[in-house]
Amino acid sequence: MLLTEIYKKGEAELRTRDIGWLLDGVETEFVISNNRRVLDQFTVRQRCIDGASADTGCTVLGLELKTPVIMSSMTMPIPAIMEDGLLQVAKGLKEAGSLIWTGTPVPQNLKDIVATGVPVAANVKPLINREKMFEAIDEVQSAGVSWIGIEIDSGQGTKIHDRQVASDCSPLSLEELKEIRKRVFTPLIFKGVLSQEDADKSLEAGADGIFVSNHGAHTLDYLPHPFQVMDEIVEIVQGEAVMLVDSGFRRGSDVFKGLAFGAQLVGLGRPILYGLAAHGAEGVRQVIHEITRELERFMSMTGSVDSKHVKRDLLIKA
Length: 318
Ligand SMILES: Cc1cc2nc3c(=O)[nH]c(=O)nc-3n(C[C@H](O)[C@H](O)[C@H](O)COP(=O)(O)O)c2cc1C
Fold this sequence. Notes:
Layout: H1 3-15, H2 30-39, E1 42-44, E2 58-60, E3 63-65, E4 69-71, H3 78-81, H4 85-96, E5 100-102, H5 110-115, E6 120-124, H6 130-142, E7 147-151, E8 159-160, E9 163-164, H7 174-183, E10 188-193, H8 196-204, E11 209-212, H9 230-237, E12 242-245, H10 252-260, E13 265-268, H11 270-301, E14 315-317
Parallel strand pairs: 4-13, 5-6, 6-7, 7-10, 10-11, 11-12, 12-13
Antiparallel strand pairs: 1-14, 2-3, 8-9
């Protein structure tokens, strides 16, 4: 099945269910339309003579992956799509050589997900009840996940349309981030960095990874797309920590642009849900596979032998 067909079938399937609204964005939904608009603002410089065969494999924070295309953090709608949905997603991602990233709530079967052998990362929200937040950190850590992510951008919870979804959160201070660092033994990633100031503080707190993200339009309205701020964030982060990006990425061309902006990994939120809803584990595998194949074509036709060679000068503002 073609990528567009998976997206169409998956979204149509989800829209018929009472979880369909989870695909929408906060308040005016500006962030969703702006994500696509900004991604489309960049064209690609072709350098095809002597075109390289491209290798999409990468090693990031100790994990070897066949593709820089990974799942972004989600738990909530997946068991509602399919009872054993998280295990199906894990299966599909493992077969694609990718990584699963769980979110809120911490999946009850997190240990089973880890046992499938797929690389696993897990996010934790900045719960107002900090004791509970630390318990969640300990819980995912003892389940054996490879990386832990902290949603620094969920300080005012999450919101879709006018409905507050998570409301039990409050912003973390630099001191608290340092405390979290002391408690976490895996690589630690701060998600939702959209400014030089937060990048700077994240590094000061000891982050191994900076996830540039507007949370796929589930936190504040009128946040920029990562590409509007990544050049300034790279200045701070380059050589100090790994950079990851998500928010609106749908095609291999989008992922290529994310790598060119300096990310080592690019996350997909809704496309994973579409893949699962359309075809279960095989749908998820196919989404990653097709996007990786598209990425490979772009890398080859721009003389980029591997993802480290996808450079910023390969993008031309439209
Ligand atoms: C239904 C849904 C649930 C989500 N749950 C979480 C979560 O628990 N934790 C988190 O950090 N991000 C969560 N996100 C945000 C995603 O991790 C990701 O940042 C966003 O979806 C990327 O944008 P995209 O869907 O356009 O690819 C969720 C997104 C969706 C659509």
